[in-house]
Amino acid sequence: MSIYFFISFKFYKLCILIIKTILNFQNMKKQFSIYLFIIFSVFSPVLKAENFDAKILRTVHTNRNTSLDGVMQGISNSMYVVLPVIPIGLFASGVINDDKDLIGKSIQIGFSSAISAITVLGTKQIIQRDRPFVTHNFIENIGNADDYSMPSGHTATAFSLATSLSLQYPKWYIIIPSYLWASAVGYSRMHLGAHYLTDVIVGAIVGAGISYITFRIEKKVMQKYR
Fold first, then answer.
1. Cα–Cα nearest to 181, from 169, 173, 171
2. pTM of the shown model
3. Residue 203 near residue 149 (C-beta atoms within 8 A)
4. What's the pLDDT band for 26 if we cut at 50, 70, 90?
5. Residue 204's pLDDT is what?
6. Is the pLDDT of residue 226 over 60?
7. Is the C-alpha dihedral spanning 17, 20, 23, 29 positive or negative?
8. Measured between alpha carbons, how far is 53 from 199 in angstroms, rounded to an integer?
């Protein structure tokens, strides 16, 4: 089997598995249902108690070092650079070296990030939580954020990538930097006044959870073609 046929077939199989998981909740119906239930049951009461989030955000945002605004904006936007570079780089390396395992890892990382983004967009439309600067006049919209607040898309994507890398390469020198970067992205969203703490926490849970699910799917697919 040529590597190009393998890539096309593997991509097709992953697409089918992901679509079935999303539309029919097959393979991991129970886990995914429990996952969503935990998110909404745990954080729904918090959403009604805006004072909790507002107090924490006021402390972080209004007491921030304004000279670091540019740095935090850079950390926040680093997701747009890191996200495509890592999976594309791994994929290209896999093709060049005829490494099917590396190709599989790169596809899993890319899929998990894409599904995290789709989940975030859908959840935002369901919850429709206003951004902090819309509700509270003491919050500045430094990062020019728009749309709804819950959950944090930047944080979800960052934790999706960090979790995928940590699962695929379970070494301390991968895990620690990955989660430090993802945590910095999450904190930057509060520093910039774009999200509440609970937005960031839910974003991290969504990103990490989806990465774990797609990691398990990828491993099942790879076992069939090794």
1. 173
2. 0.77
3. no
4. very low
5. 94
6. no
7. negative
8. 9
pLDDT digits (tens, 9 = 90+) for 195-208: 999 999 999 999 99
CA atoms within 13 A on the CB side of 219: 9
d(CA 35, CA 141): 31
Domain ranges of the chain: 3-224
Q: What is the pLDDT of residues 31-84, one digit of tens each?
A: 555 555 555 555 555 555 457 788 888 888 888 888 888 999 999 999 899 989
- Tell me the three-class secondary structure of the chain, residue by residue: CCHHHHHHHHHHHHHHHHHHHHHCCCCCHHHHHHHHHHHHHHHHHHHHCHHHHHHHHHHHHHCCCHHHHHHHHHHHHCHHHHHHHHHHHHHHHHHHCCCHHHHHHHHHHHHHHHHHHHHHHHHHHHHCCCCHHHHCCCCCCCCCCCCCCCCCHHHHHHHHHHHHHHHHCCCHHHHHHHHHHHHHHHHHHHHCCCCCHHHHHHHHHHHHHHHHHHHHHHHHHHHHCC
> How far apart are alpha carbons 87 and 213 in whole angstroms?
17
129 burial (CB, 10 Å; 0-12 / 13-18 / 19+) is buried
Ranges 41-45, 135-139, 176-180, most confident = 176-180
Question: Regarding the domain delimited by 3-224, which CATH topology (the fold level of the hierarchy) does it fall under?
Answer: Vanadium-containing Chloroperoxidase; domain 1 (1.20.144)
